[in-house]
Amino acid sequence: MFQPMTTEQLKLVWKNLPEKTGIYLFQGANNKPLYIGKALNLKTRVSQYVKTGDLRLQKMVSLAKDIKVIETGSDIGALILESQLIKKHKPAFNIMLRDDKQYFYVIFTKEKFPKIFLSHQPSAISHKPLTSIGPFTDGTALKTTLRYLRRVFPYCTCKKPHNNFCLNYHIGKCAGICCLKQQSRIYNFSRWQSHRGSSTKSGQLFRQRRIRLWRTISKEKEYGRNVKAVKDILNGEKTSLLKKLEKEMVALGKKEEFDKAIETRNKIDKIKRVFENASIIQNIPYYDISNNHNERALLELKKFLKLKQLPHHIEGYDVANIQGKYAVGAMVLFTDGKPDKSGYRRFKILNPKSETLNKFQILNSKFKTGGDVGMLKEILTRRFRHPEWSLPDLIVIDGGKAQLNTALAVLRELRIMNNELRITALTKDERHRGSKIFIAGKKNAIPLSRLPISVKNLLLQVNAEAHRFAIGYYRQLHRRSIETRNF
């Protein structure tokens, strides 16, 4: 007879989970998966289900009889295995908690030089034949994976054929052969064949063109192998790909083509390295403090904000832009007082406002549109439309009264405001240092100097990390724009 886990059993299972990267499966009756997810830290991720306030997640947990985990050792391995298991088992709560438009698929067009790109709905692309691999749940990890694979196996993302080499060709991310519209006509071997028995000049021309043809055919074959390699990795066939590359390396060595053999060996090393590392996403530094210090800070924060429970999950938000250009938003997650990188999210602002806020607008609580406030409203709305992301215990926003009121309005509009969720906003002085804190439900701001030192430091750390993450994304977009213009 089916017996779901009690809360005590769930907590016991959670406490024994490894703090490693991998896949977790909530299993129901007959060991059928109810939900499948991935995490950089399995223990931290599953802990969010223990104290979730989301009714749908509570329902899922109440139906689970066990939690199974599979360690993968890397974020790429977890991403690919998660996709395979979701496709195989079609868990009910993966479907309920996400619609089709929230999953990611890698698209491969069926052309002479296949293009590779991402889509939420492959079925909506009807103008060209294609194949797809997916679904993938983590778009950020998938994009990072593809960026890394593209360095090892260059491929094309150009949507239309053109006569000039693209930027990606010049930076080594594209073979270049796919760029030229007239490629097949330029290297028409049957036409060159007529020059074989003609004059010396024509014969030289034939030989030159034959060399160019040979190089073109070699590039075509290499491009096909690159696309096949990307498919193999995303389909979880890493082992067979490595064996194939190792055989190729040995064969090249026997032919004394040592440069190509070394190049193949480098590819093998890069593939192995990325699957051995815990995450290919750059580690985000933070000031490491002891668990005792963390616990004391959380206890004092609970007391200061009059919370019913410890703020185990704190989310920080900030935006970055220059007069509306390259506008981005960032969300960071702190779990038990430490940054939890698996919960970091970046937002490219879809509707940036060019106007900036003046001092009156920042202090006026009725001002709720435009500038940083409008951008904050957008990223909060997008974030809280993800019911599968657990609700935080505390939100820390960079800004003042206007930003605080905007956050409250968004949560009320989405009907997810509750007494256990507290919202705060931190203002800065002229030197960009923390100055005051606004707390939802309190009329006046409180100087940070009046806060317990551990509470002040924790809030400032969350705020600084959100600012760093937002600025990093802004600089990335800005740098990319400059490189494109210069090219």
From TrEMBL:
Residues 19-95 form the GIY-YIG domain. CDD domains: GIY-YIG_UvrC_Cho. Gene3D superfamilies: GIY-YIG endonuclease (3.40.1440.10), UvrC, RNAse H endonuclease domain (3.30.420.340). It comes from the Bacteria. One of its GO terms (biological process) is nucleotide-excision repair. GO terms for cellular component: excinuclease repair complex. GO terms for molecular function: excinuclease ABC activity. Residues 239-274 form the UVR domain. Pfam families: GIY-YIG (PF01541), UvrC_RNaseH_dom (PF08459). InterPro entries: GIY-YIG_endonuc (IPR000305), GIY-YIG_endonuc_sf (IPR035901), GIY-YIG_UvrC_Cho (IPR047296), UVR_dom (IPR001943), UVR_dom_sf (IPR036876), UvrABC_protein_C (IPR050066), UvrC_RNase_H_dom (IPR001162), UvrC_RNase_H_dom_sf (IPR038476). Residues 266-411 form the UvrC family homology region profile domain. PANTHER family: UVRABC SYSTEM PROTEIN C, UVRC/OXIDOREDUCTASE. This is Excinuclease ABC subunit C. It comes from Candidatus Yanofskybacteria bacterium RIFCSPLOWO2_01_FULL_42_49.
